[in-house]
Amino acid sequence: xxxxxxxxxxxxxxxxxxxxxxxxxxxxxxxxxxxxxxxxxxxxxxxxxxxxxxxxxxxxxxxxxxxxxxxxxxxxxxxxxxxxxxxxxxxxxxxxxxxxxxxxxxxxxxxxxxxxxxxxxxxxxxxxxxxxxxxxxxxxxxxxxxxxxxxxxxxxxxxxxxxxxxxxxxxxxxxxxxxxxxxxxxxxxxxxxxxxxxxxxxxxxxxxxxxxxxxxxxxxxxxxxxxxxxxxxxxxxxxxxxxxxxxxxxxxxxxxxxxxxxxxxxxxxxxxxxxxxxxxxxxxxxxxxxxxxxxxxx
Length: 298
What we know:
- By secondary structure, this protein is of the alpha/beta class.
- It has eight helices and ten strands.
- The chain is globular, with a radius of gyration of 18 Å.
């Protein structure tokens, strides 16, 4: 397989990137030998399906969060939230490390497939879209994800009688967070599928079902401004949700990215950054951490 066809090794890439920025000890990604697996208790066409996102509700007082916005730590959220699915909400992903060089997050359908799920419900492919969708924090603390965020999301799902959940992460740490929480739901008898773009992270954690799209981060639900690709991507995820019969079931989407072909080489690649750019990014990262700490501490 040529390098152009290989998925990005996000764990190694982020290690090299933050080492270049001057941070020492590498982050230790979660990994589990055993993977829980819950088959659907009934046909998908009879199931209540929930959507779980790592996108944040738009906050007008938190600076730029629009398409193409730089990383905005102030726009992060730190607790599981829920909101109605009756209308399409205004969610943004400016608070996470998506691929800002090759995507702009201008089309919410590429990272939040609520419209596609509504269409699937109308077509009878799922029994019902849950009345609420759920937001899961992007948390580097695996212990917090396991002890706090996971149980909180499970409680929401149980309250709303969820049969199955579709998780859609965005940044590298998002992929770890949703993978950990998908395991918690599976252990409690709720089937899950992850739609993601960071293959190495999800498979390193170990999950029941994973639809991998080899797209820049921030497009796990399909190509932007391409409803057909978003419909097809969701259909593949739902098919995997229904047909997988064992854990660690990974299916790769056959859809191709149509943007610049060098996106894989560009993402957080310190070899392509000047010393001045590395210094600028370190300063911005430190400022972001300070802003996030301020929000977390009130």
